[in-house]
Specification:
single chain, about 325 residues, alpha/beta, Rossmann fold, Helicase, Ruva Protein, domain 3, 2 domains, five-stranded parallel beta sheet, two-stranded parallel ribbon, 14 helices, globular, ATPase
């Protein structure tokens, strides 16, 4: 049983501000509370989000709703087969007046970058995001440029069996903190959507409800959330279990352990707690770890998805008995 603590004023402000952002997003996205909550969790964990599902279920709408809810620089990239890496990062162009090369920043220079249908671009173009997602910087022609803070990539993709798609490389998937699927809306939510979205898009009326400074303050508050030693060991045990599972030929990386703990901090903060409990890790294991896993041939033959394997591993790994601060 966890020992309770008084919620700090900073954490209290985080809950209030996050609630405003969540309400703004849900005014556009009906009936997807879990997806919206995970999106906010990834934002406050300083991570990146991959939204994967069939066309037309609101992937891009969710990304745009988050971007418009925060008063910060936002850029959108439409990934296509002919998109070049320089179209994302920027390019050095020769200025005839100054007779010098000048750097023209690409759309990645923003606080929130919405990458629409990322797996319709070639793997070479997809890899242009590797450095900026991991190191928050871009190197062009030997010169390194720092990116804005906060910095978040929200990418959407269609399932790989859809026509005209390329599978994301393992290194690319590993840089996304979490992956979510929107799913089809419930009949009631879809009926409401016909009324709300019938004449105009609710995105047109969406106004920012938080500033960049407020988001930075929220991220600082999340960093201060306490993670006990048993909880850290529990996170390592969960990740290690994926590396030893006979149903997986590729387990989760050490990077995923860091991102799992960061996401757990944000998850705890959104719940009004200044400490992480096992439930935080258990709830996040599938969205944070499953997309990094590759099933074995036997598991593929049995149609065992990485999400199912991960859920089983969560039930098998022993849970710490007590958490105190």
């Amino acid at each position: 049983m966890a020992v309770t603590h008084d919620v700090s004023p900073r954490l209290d402000d985080l809950v209030v501000t996050a609630h405003r952002i969540r309400q703004a997003i849900e005014s556009v996205i009906e009936g997807k509370g879990d997806a919206v909550r995970l999106t906010l969790t990834v934002l406050l964990a300083e991570g990146h989000l991959l939204i994967e599902d069939v066309p037309g279920v609101g992937k891009t709408m969710l990304a745009k709703a988050l971007a418009r809810s925060i008063d910060c620089p936002v850029r959108r990239i439409q990934f296509t087969p002919d998109l070049l890496p320089s179209d994302i990062t920027g390019v050095s162009a020769y200025n005839q007046q100054t007779r010098e090369f000048e750097f023209k920043p690409g759309p990645v220079f923003a606080s929130i970058v919405v990458g629409d249908e990322i797996n319709r671009a070639s793997p070479k173009t997809q890899s242009a995001l590797l450095e900026c997602m991991e190191e928050h910087q871009v190197t062009v022609d030997g010169t390194t440029y720092a990116l804005d803070s906060p910095f978040m990539v929200i990418a959407t993709q269609n399932p790989i069996e859809m026509e005209g798609t390329y599978p994301l490389p393992e290194a690319q998937r590993d840089r996304f903190t979490a992956r979510i699927a929107m799913g089809y809306p419930a009949p009631g939510a879809e009926l409401e959507m016909l009324d709300v979205h019938g004449a105009t898009s609710p995105l047109d009326k969406l106004e920012p409800v938080a500033t960049t400074a407020e988001v930075k303050a929220l991220i600082e508050a999340v960093r201060a959330v306490y993670v006990s030693q048993p909880i850290k060991k529990y996170a390592v045990d969960l990740v290690t279990a994926t590396r030893h599972s006979p149903e997986l030929r590729l387990g989760a990386s050490p990077r995923s352990t860091l991102q799992l703990v960061r996401a757990a901090r944000a998850h705890a903060a959104l719940a009004g707690r200044d400490y992480v409990i096992p439930d935080d890790l258990q709830e996040l294991c599938v969205p944070v770890l499953a997309h990094r896993l590759l099933p074995s041939v036997e598991a593929q033959g049995q149609r065992r998805m990485p999400e199912q394997v991960m859920a089983d591993l969560v039930r098998q790994v022993p849970v710490p008995e007590a958490q105190t601060k």
